[in-house]
């Protein structure tokens, strides 16, 4: 796996200086990595040095080259060891429309790709002939299966199946708040950095197109609109981005809105 020629952080000599998100401002290692460093095997250390830290540095550079912006993003997310509970932050809006019974657990991968011109968000457009959500824009992901260890495993498995994104091309950062869909799914958004060298290979039976949208565009309140739709004879308000050539709306737009709100709350 190749990386762009950013300077790669190396483990600090002596004591690391941690930011409020628990990441060293010098070497970009997390508290867990710093604590376990001496007990890690040589291959584990090499993986951190050759894969994990370069991706973190690329992400930092793409976020206006700012350690403060990188810290803000990390603080906006729920930690990986503490997945957020609850039925979904939007459940009260849909309570009279949800199907009976417990929700179906699902996970999506909200992937951020570091680019020289700024961070990009990876999105897919579903194949038109799909029975559910055909032609709609979304994140890679889907229903959790019994063999999935957790939401992270489900999101990465689905991303591999849909666009051939491999686990070693992803560095998971944390969670957004769970979101419930009108079809009865409780969706856990997993935020991750994707290696910019990744080349998507869409599964034609599921994905018609893979594209990127600047994170800055999606985080700008001026670009998110409320639109009215008629659902079961009732007018509902949903969120939508006016990105050229694509309709980014519904659950996908709501998950991105949740990221924006969490970032605003950490400012």
TrEMBL record:
Species per Swiss-Prot/TrEMBL record: Stenotrophomonas bentonitica
Keyword Magnesium: yes
Cofactor: Mg(2+); Mn(2+)
Keyword Magnesium among record annotations: yes
Database matches in InterPro entries: CoAse, DUF1289, NUDIX_hydrolase-like_dom_sf, NUDIX_hydrolase_dom
Name of this chain's protein: CoA pyrophosphatase
Pfam families xref list: DUF1289, NUDIX
Keywords annotated in UniProt: Hydrolase, Magnesium, Manganese, Metal-binding
Residue ranges annotated for the Nudix hydrolase domain, each copy included: 103-235
